[in-house]
Amino acid sequence: MGIVLGPNRYGKAEIRLVRVHRDGDTHGLVDFNVSIALSGELAAAHLVGDNSGVLPTDTMKNTVYAFAKEHGVGEPEVFALLLARHFVGSQPQVHGAKVSIESFAWDRLGPHSFRKRGDHIRTTVVSVTAAGTQVVSGVTGLTLLNSADSEFHGFVQDGYTTLPPTTDRILATAVDARWRHAGDDTDWAASFEGSLAALLEAFVGTYSYSLQQTLYAMGAGVLGSRPEVAEVRLALPNKHHYLADLSPFGLDNPNEVFIAGDRPYGLIEGTVARDGAPAATAEWWL
Ligand SMILES: O=c1[nH]c(=O)c2[nH]c(=O)[nH]c2[nH]1
Hints:
Elements: E1 15-23, E2 26-40, H1 43-48, H2 57-71, H3 76-90, E3 94-104, E4 106-110, E5 113-116, E6 121-129, E7 132-146, E8 171-181, H4 188-205, H5 211-225, E9 229-238, E10 241-243, E11 258-260, E12 266-273
Antiparallel strand pairs: 1-2, 2-3, 3-6, 4-5, 6-7, 7-8, 8-9, 9-12, 10-11
Helix pairs in contact: 4-5
The protein binds uric acid.
Family: Belongs to the uricase family.
Function: Catalyzes the oxidation of uric acid to 5-hydroxyisourate, which is further processed to form (S)-allantoin.
Binding site for 5-hydroxyisourate: 57, 152, 169, 212, 238
């Protein structure tokens, strides 16, 4: 039986970039975590130690910082597209580039003072390949909770089922959502803000009989309001809240005191796509 090299890629992971844009006394701040993965005709490095096609990962890191100075840094999608196109365009042996960016938001406190937002992280994954350019935007760690309008009953009962059906529970999750754009040119800031707003509106506005139902509503909400988005994928951990049993203390507990569970947690994952949307040109699930 022969041994063959399978799919491979390489790059620099988690390049931490902070860019200050100086406009007189008023500064702008961009805070990114950039990861790069290149693929192409790179078998010789693995098979015979021939590095003649290997752009060092150190060079990739340097390119990020140099581009940040030369081009400035605005929307993460734009910066990721710039980098991905650069690597594919400048290195003939490189046929594919995947640039992923986590973008950390800082809220302004003053002209040159900022406070890091402890909330969700904005994400971007740009893939430039022979099949095309694909832009995926997203959000991770967006923690949401509904203290009403959530029920869960009517589920399968087998010999191991102990979960009581409920018509009133807490529904909480930390949203990990990605959405694939149909094209590679849009108003990225408006698209992100609009998609985020649609996710929140669906979470708040859906009377939920399961997190699965809420997931679909959130995906459909993005597709319904953002024509530039072709497909939405969501991973929603069910952050269980267990009703505390206060009966030993002679106290009733009409859904007021909960134990916040840690693990295990339910994990609900799904894709919501627009009928007839262009196919993905690169793998992009989480
Ligand atoms: O919204 C839910 N979906 C499930 O599939 C499930 N399973 C479970 O135990 N609790 C829940 N909640």
